[in-house]
Design brief:
With 131 residues, this protein is mainly β. Among the domains are: 51 residues; 31 residues, no CATH class. The protein is built from 1 helix and 10 strands; from the N terminus they run ββββββαββββ. The chain has a 6-stranded antiparallel β-sheet with strand order 1-2-3-4-5-6, with no helix packed on it. It has a 4-stranded antiparallel β-sheet with strand order 7-8-9-10, with no helix packed on it. A hairpin with a 2-residue loop joins strand 4 and strand 5. The termini are far apart. The relative contact order is 0.08. Keywords: Cell projection, Cilium, Flagellum. It comes from Smithornis capensis. One of its GO terms (cellular component) is motile cilium. This is MORN5 protein.
Length: 131
């Protein structure tokens, strides 16, 4: 069985890096997910006892300390860290600008609404839904 410090790659592409004991995650270790997020924890016989999840954008979750995108503050994490962009440069996703919104249309988060057509399309002009 695996013991000591090692790397273990799961079929999903997720990778574990850390201490192993008797074939289980045991001690300090970290799961690295394909999308760029990670979970660092103290493991006891394969079960995390305490840890912190870090999203690919740099924000994190640790127990009750969740301060991101709640009902009182809808800013993206990059806006919290770097501030708002100047007027006229909207931010539609956490990673930055996702597309242009034509004049007279309204942002819907996943695309925009065109009152002339009455439909919502994504930022690549593909149909999403009727308004």
């Amino acid at each position: 069985r695996m013991e000591g410090f090692g790397f273990y790659k799961l079929p999903t592409g997720t990778e574990y890096r850390g201490e192993l004991w008797d074939g289980m995650f045991h001690g300090e270790g970290e799961l690295l997910f394909p999308g760029g997020s990670r979970y660092r924890a103290l493991w006891v016989r394969g079960v995390p006892t305490q840890g912190k999840y870090s999203f690919a954008d740099g924000s994190g979750y640790e127990g009750e300390k969740w301060n991101y995108c709640d009902g009182y503050d809808r800013r993206f994490y990059t806006e919290i860290v770097s501030g708002f962009k100047p007027p006229g440069i909207p931010q539609f996703t956490n990673l930055g600008r996702s597309g242009e919104i034509p004049e007279g249309c309204y942002d819907c988060g996943d695309g925009f609404y065109d009152p002339k057509t009455g439909v919502i399309v994504d930022y690549r002009l593909r149909f999403l839904r009727n308004a």
